[in-house]
């Protein structure tokens, strides 16, 4: 009964918080955290504690999977160096700076390093919820970094925890080997699960419910073997998601995609909101464990919050100049950005539930039975940093984005127009053969040819709009069967552009969504006829 009450309370809080945040135009995660903290004063909710296993095994795989399905592999490749610097280099830099601060405040080095690893990763769900509208390149870097840096930080965290529990010093060679194996084996597991999921989808092609069930299971099937093997489950889930983002569109039907999209959109929204409500509820438990040293602990938390913000800003404004010194290729010069353009990337360093779950997962006792000193300090400092980053950076992020005045990606519209142009050209070429195959009358063929030629004539990639290519299409319901039969031709042309690198996954998904709507509408029309 208590569990059901908590679920209803969290759901109602998400509903109210979402409505209020929209009206007040503030970051929804921040408001949900505040509402959760307010709910913690209720007697029946004051003892709620966020179990770390729930976050790491239930919430994390689903949230990472959905985000990885919606990023662009081409943009990841073209920005791989910047992403690697942030997801690996910045994680290590932040971890060691925070560890030095923690050691100066009296924590043992292993526990201080645990604190550094806990506070190093940004929160993928918070970043996406707060940053708002950004150009494609910046958004891809942020989203991919926030997915991958969890894996880097959790590997470093496991090494530091092993040191704290066993008392044996960290060996750099074995730690580096473990890091490489964790990434490599995790990626291999993710690839294997991704290809297996595609194979199973081909077998279940006609069953929407079973395909949706498979979609819900996939992130956990990727995460659990990696977790059991002691390698990065984060990397496994992200690799699996990216694999399916490339192969899935070719085996998933429009109706399945629509159902799956609705499921994941609602699921991730509820999971994301529930996490921040639970973090707010956790405040009372954390505050109760501070004791008489609360002022010193809060001071350490504020200093660590300043450190994680400062290190990220310093990293984003020093490493680009180092790269410029080493890489002077003309193609790289075109990608250079100034301080103003880099600021949103440097300011989006929110910490969230992953950090708190890792802090709570720190064991109470070492292998020899002694109590690990500083565990309550790690938890309290982590909560303080989460709160500060969400308040300070979350409230100011919209203003930072406006001040940066980032121009839209000039290639994105051109790629979308190219996709529209290529799909129309492909159906015009395939129109006679397809019409003969399904027995369409000549009048229908000529009417449809004229419609497609007019739409193609309206596309001017230097000044046009993709909507113009679709204005007349709904006027030809009498050719529904023929247009429905031509949709696979459009999709093949679309996949060919993506595979050739002429458009990215974001553009493919956008155009594919329009084709899916056409297919669902035309299917209903054909069935009625």
From TrEMBL:
<keyword id="KW-1133">Transmembrane helix</keyword>
<feature type="transmembrane region" description="Helical">
    <location>
        <begin position="107"/>
        <end position="131"/>
    </location>
</feature>
<dbReference type="Pfam" id="PF00999">
    <property type="entry name" value="Na_H_Exchanger"/>
</dbReference>
<dbReference type="GO" id="GO:0015386">
    <property type="term" value="F:potassium:proton antiporter activity"/>
</dbReference>
<protein>
    <submittedName>
        <fullName>Na+/H+ antiporter</fullName>
    </submittedName>
</protein>
<keyword id="KW-1003">Cell membrane</keyword>
<dbReference type="InterPro" id="IPR018422">
    <property type="entry name" value="Cation/H_exchanger_CPA1"/>
</dbReference>
<feature type="transmembrane region" description="Helical">
    <location>
        <begin position="45"/>
        <end position="66"/>
    </location>
</feature>
<feature type="transmembrane region" description="Helical">
    <location>
        <begin position="293"/>
        <end position="315"/>
    </location>
</feature>
<dbReference type="GO" id="GO:0005886">
    <property type="term" value="C:plasma membrane"/>
</dbReference>
<comment type="function">
    <text>Na(+)/H(+) antiporter that extrudes sodium in exchange for external protons.</text>
</comment>
<keyword id="KW-0406">Ion transport</keyword>
<dbReference type="GO" id="GO:0098719">
    <property type="term" value="P:sodium ion import across plasma membrane"/>
</dbReference>
<dbReference type="GO" id="GO:0051453">
    <property type="term" value="P:regulation of intracellular pH"/>
</dbReference>
<dbReference type="InterPro" id="IPR004705">
    <property type="entry name" value="Cation/H_exchanger_CPA1_bac"/>
</dbReference>
<dbReference type="GO" id="GO:0015385">
    <property type="term" value="F:sodium:proton antiporter activity"/>
</dbReference>
<comment type="similarity">
    <text>Belongs to the monovalent cation:proton antiporter 1 (CPA1) transporter (TC 2.A.36) family.</text>
</comment>
<dbReference type="InterPro" id="IPR006153">
    <property type="entry name" value="Cation/H_exchanger_TM"/>
</dbReference>
<feature type="transmembrane region" description="Helical">
    <location>
        <begin position="263"/>
        <end position="281"/>
    </location>
</feature>
<feature type="transmembrane region" description="Helical">
    <location>
        <begin position="343"/>
        <end position="364"/>
    </location>
</feature>
<keyword id="KW-0472">Membrane</keyword>
<keyword id="KW-0915">Sodium</keyword>
<feature type="transmembrane region" description="Helical">
    <location>
        <begin position="180"/>
        <end position="200"/>
    </location>
</feature>
<feature type="transmembrane region" description="Helical">
    <location>
        <begin position="78"/>
        <end position="101"/>
    </location>
</feature>
<keyword id="KW-0813">Transport</keyword>
<keyword id="KW-0812">Transmembrane</keyword>
<feature type="transmembrane region" description="Helical">
    <location>
        <begin position="376"/>
        <end position="401"/>
    </location>
</feature>
<keyword id="KW-0050">Antiport</keyword>
<feature type="domain" description="Cation/H+ exchanger transmembrane">
    <location>
        <begin position="13"/>
        <end position="403"/>
    </location>
</feature>
<feature type="transmembrane region" description="Helical">
    <location>
        <begin position="220"/>
        <end position="242"/>
    </location>
</feature>
<keyword id="KW-0739">Sodium transport</keyword>
């Amino acid at each position: 009964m208590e569990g059901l009450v908590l679920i209803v309370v969290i759901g109602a809080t998400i509903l109210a918080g979402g409505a209020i945040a929209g009206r007040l135009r503030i970051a929804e995660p921040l408001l949900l955290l505040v509402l959760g903290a307010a709910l913690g004063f209720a007697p029946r909710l004051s003892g709620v504690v966020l179990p770390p296993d729930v976050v790491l095994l239930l919430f994390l795989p689903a949230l990472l999977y959905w985000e990885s399905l919606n990023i662009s592999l081409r943009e990841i490749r073209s920005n791989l160096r910047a992403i690697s610097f942030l997801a690996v280099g910045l994680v290590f830099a932040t971890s060691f700076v925070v560890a030095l601060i923690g050691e100066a405040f009296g924590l043992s080095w292993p526990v201080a390093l645990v604190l550094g690893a806990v506070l190093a990763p940004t929160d993928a769900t918070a970043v996406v919820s707060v940053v708002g509208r950004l150009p494609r390149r910046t958004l891809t870097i942020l989203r991919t970094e926030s997915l991958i840096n969890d894996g880097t930080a959790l590997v470093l965290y496991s090494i530091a925890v092993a040191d704290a529990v066993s008392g044996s010093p960290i060996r750099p060679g074995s730690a580096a080997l473990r890091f490489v194996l964790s990434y490599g084996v995790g990626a291999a597991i993710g690839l294997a699960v991704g290809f297996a999921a595609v194979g199973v989808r081909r077998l279940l092609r006609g069953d929407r419910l079973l395909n949706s069930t498979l979609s819900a299971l996939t992130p956990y099937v990727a995460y659990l073997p990696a977790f059991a093997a002691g390698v990065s489950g984060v990397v496994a889930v992200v690799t699996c998601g990216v694999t399916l983002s490339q192969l899935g569109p070719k085996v998933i039907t429009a109706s399945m995609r629509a159902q799956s999209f609705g499921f994941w959109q609602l699921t991730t929204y509820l999971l994301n909101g529930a996490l921040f409500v639970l973090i707010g509820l956790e405040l009372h438990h954390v505050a109760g464990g501070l004791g008489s040293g609360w002022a010193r602990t809060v001071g350490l938390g504020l200093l660590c919050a300043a450190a994680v913000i400062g290190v990220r800003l310093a990293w984003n404004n020093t490493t680009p100049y180092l790269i410029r010194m080493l890489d002077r290729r003309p193609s790289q010069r075109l990608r250079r950005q100034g301080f103003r353009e880099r600021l949103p990337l440097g300011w989006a360093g929110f910490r969230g539930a992953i950090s708190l779950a890792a802090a709570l997962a720190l064991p109470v006792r070492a292998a020899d039975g002694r109590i690990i000193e500083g565990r309550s300090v790690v938890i309290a400092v982590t909560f303080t940093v989460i709160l500060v980053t969400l308040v300070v950076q979350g409230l100011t992020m919209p203003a930072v984005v406006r001040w940066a005045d980032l121009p839209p990606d000039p290639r994105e519209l051109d790629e979308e127009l190219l996709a529209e142009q290529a799909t129309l050209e492909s159906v015009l070429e395939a129109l006679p053969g397809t019409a003969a195959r399904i027995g369409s009358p000549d009048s229908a063929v000529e009417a449809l040819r004229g419609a497609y030629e007019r739409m193609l004539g309206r596309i001017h990639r230097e000044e046009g709009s993709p909507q113009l290519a679709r204005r007349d299409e709904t006027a030809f319901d009498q050719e529904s069967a023929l247009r429905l039969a031509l949709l696979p031709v459009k999709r093949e042309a679309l996949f060919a552009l993506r595979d050739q690198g002429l458009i990215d996954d974001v553009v493919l998904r956008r155009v594919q969504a329009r084709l899916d709507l056409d297919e669902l509408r035309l299917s209903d029309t054909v069935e009625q006829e």
